[in-house]
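Structure ticket #2291
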Amino acid sequence: MALFTRKVDYALVVLSYLHHRPEGGCARVIAERFGLKRAFAAKVLKQLCVAGFVRGRRGLKGGYVLSRLADEIRLVELLDAMEEPFHLADCNMPGNDPCELIGTCPVSGAIAEVDRRVRSVLAAVTLGELFREQSCGKTEYGLGLALVRKP
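Resolution: structure written out below.
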């Protein structure tokens, strides 16, 4: 099981493309550039629009542009916007039916803590960091995880 769904993967690709092209781009060009189905690229762009990450422009030079700087968008925001809010297990997701093992589960507290830590790491990473050319060094994000930057 992957943490990122295909929709999230494509959203990252689309947002990276728009980040590096301030003039923007249209669904057709983005789909062709990355070998995506045009309808799926359009669906991802529409969802990114609804979530407020991009905005559409009409007209001859129409298309999509980022509506927020990539440095202002947290990875956890994108995950939550493209799919239902990220969580490790259904038992620690508010609003879900209570687990049958509630009160007797020996790992529910530990799973909830891991979920909290993972969300904290995802909240610490901005899309700008993901899209920047990597330089020497590394950035720590907790949990002993680091994004290693290539020289």
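Closing remark: The chain has a mean pLDDT of 82.
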